[in-house]
Amino acid sequence: MAPGTACMDSFSSRVARHVKSGQYAMALELFQQMQQEGITPDRCSFVHVLNACAGLQALEEGRHIHTQIRESGYESDVYVGSGLVDMYARCGSIDDAWSVFSRLATRDVVSWNAVILGYSNCQQGEKALELFRQMQLEGLEPNLVTFIGVLSAWAIDKGRHVHKQIIQSGYELDVCVGSCLVDMYAKCGCIEDASRLFNRMTTRNVVAWNSMILGYVKCGQGQRALEVYRKMPHGVLEPNPVTYAGLLNACSSSGALEEGKRIHTQIVQSGIDSDVYMSNALIDLYAKCGSIEDAWTVFQRMSTHNVVAWNAMISGYVKCGQGQRAIELSRQMQLEGVEPDHVTFVGLLNACASIAALKEGKHVHDQIIESGCESDVFVANNLVHMYAKCGSIEDAQSVFDKMPTHNVISWNALLGGYAITGRGKEALQQFEQMRQEGVAVDSVTFIALLTACSRAGLVNEGFCYFEIMGSVHGISATPEHYACMVDLLSRAGHLGEAENLVKTMSSEPNSPVWKALLAACRVHGNEETGKQVAKRAVELDSTKAGSYVLLSNIYAAAGKWDLSRSIQRQRLSRGVRKEPGRSWIEVNGKVHSFLVDDLNHPQRAQIRAELRRLFPLMKEAGYIPDTKFVLHNVPEEEKVMRLCHHSERLAMAYGFISTPPGTILRVFKNLRVCGDCHTATKFMSKIVGRTIIVRDAKRFHHFENGLCSCNDYW
């Protein structure tokens, strides 16, 4: 053997060893040294260094080596050509891979596998399938690598066909092929097929276990995913980051907080808790399970935060009812140089919607326009939703009109906006337009329609839509639809019909249905029916305060204070906390929140002085306090004082003293506005010459010049 040949063989074998051990950079460095010493690479050296380029994703270096291969005359060699196809495919340059492949005079199974796998990885499954068929037409039998490479690209019908070929080839029981088949069925949503195949496997690797765990998560069966994990042979197989990520998703989707904490402990013990991907999954788990403090602890421990981590925290704070904190966090994120993406914007829009921060929402809208995300239908739908929730239906309609296409979510957001603002007839007109555009309606569409009819007193129209929902659109009525119908009838004074409708429900009435009927009993003072309805509502959900409060209020309004207090004691003995009435107003970009009789605001003295100034002017204009809305057994004078210090009035008074005359005020309340505050706000709007927009738990009220948009039907 010539000395030059011996040196070349030595370099080639050393390059091969480095590639085999995953030391790609060292392999590439050695190849360059070989050329510097004047040694001409042979076909084996070129193939090894192409593998190194693929491992490093070094596309430009690979192109340079391709030039050398062409100059050396090896490009048409099937062995080297297959290496080039594989390098380009693994570096994501599928067009270059195809260009080399199509020029090969001879193609072996290795070159076919490389190009098929390349198209599969580039999410071009149809092209991969076409090549898979062509390969067999040219007389080449697929091997184990072919099947492993292509399974992830198939839709389920084509995947089943490939599965049959795998059985015929005798590869089904191979652990790698079997794992890929399980993964294919799981990803296609055929979880039972995946499970049957998984159970038939005599040997399972961690990929197979992960596929089952992730498959159940994808199908919304988080608990089944956790059950699979408990059966995994720990000690024989160790969970990897993919396993843990799937388990955290399983816990977050099923609300399994304690299980998630145990898995967090295992992640720490495995030493992978510092991984950014794992930390993001932990934040998502805690945020979705309502443990925002734990999410914040994980977030703070991260050395760097990417946009995914920020998004998880922002969404978590929104979910936990801390919209203002979510907005503050987004500002901190941008100060740290992290650019928001479309997920960030959606989280911020939901934050603004949750606290009705219209000014902040408009600022987010400006950012969306600057980023070019306005054309994203997901973002645009949330813009419509935000404006609707903030009571600016005109802005919601404007965004909607500019959208190039509308899906059912777009329409539902718009219809819901018209419903909550009490513009029932406009909602019905929009629905007809939706039908003309041929957009398929869904269950949520009819909830919006029935709510719109309820808020506007459109009883006949409501019954018509309730009927066609099933007869024309094939949508079965859910308890939510029945709750809307009960509300519609009750508001119109048809309490008996509402009771009969509940009795004729095809399914068992749930808590919201009974609560809707109970609220009607409260409005109409129907004590006897209220007792029976409240009993059913509490039986179905004894952990929520609403039913106790409504029944207690019925007794209080009837002057039966002992019974009212008895219901309150029953609620407290069961550990059920009542949500306090809270109102808030946005002034100069900051949200100010008030509770009833609030003494915490720094300008409380000026706020109360403004209410004292307005009270005689209101009485002079004809206002008479309706003290039946004070559900406490106290003297009449104290009842009047309590009415004056309801949270919505404190928020309005702050708005009067903090904004220029003529400024529109937007006040929001978490509970239903009481009848006396509704009357008082009409008087205040006329006396101060302001438009006052109030959103309570049920709808928007636009007060102007002594009148309300609801026409006192609410």
Word description of this protein:
- This protein is mainly alpha-helical and 714 residues long.
- The chain contains 38 helices and 6 strands.
- Among the domains are: 477-578, Tetratricopeptide repeat domain (Serine Threonine Protein Phosphatase 5, Tetratricopeptide repeat); 582-708, no CATH class.
- The chain is elongated, with a radius of gyration of 33 Å.
- It starts with a helix and ends in a 6-residue tail after the last strand.
- The chain has a 6-stranded mixed beta sheet with strand order 2-1-3-4-5-6, covered by helices on one side.
- The mean pLDDT is 85.
- Helices cover 68% and strands 4% of the residues.
Feature tags:
TPR-like_helical_dom_sf; 714 residues; repeat; PPR_At4g14850-like_plant; 6 strands; 6-stranded mixed sheet; mainly alpha; Serine Threonine Protein Phosphatase 5, Tetratricopeptide repeat
In short:
The protein is mainly alpha-helical and 714 residues long. The protein has 38 helices and six strands. It holds the Pfam family PPR_2.
Overall structural class, as computed from helix and strand content, comes to mainly alpha
Q: So what's the overall shape?
A: elongated
- State the total count of DSSP E strands: 6
Specify Rg, calculated over alpha carbons: 33 Å
Number of helices: 38
The proportion of strand residues reads under 5%
- Spatial arrangement of strands, main beta sheet: 2-1-3-4-5-6
> Poorly predicted ranges (pLDDT <50, ≥5 residues)?
none
Query: What is the residue-averaged pLDDT?
Result: 85
Quote the distance from N terminus to C terminus.
99 Å
Helix coverage percent of residues? 55-70%
The largest sheet is:
6 strands, mixed
Pfam families: DYW_deaminase, E_motif, PPR, PPR_2, PPR_3
Domain DYW: 622-714
Organism: Sphagnum jensenii
Keywords: Repeat
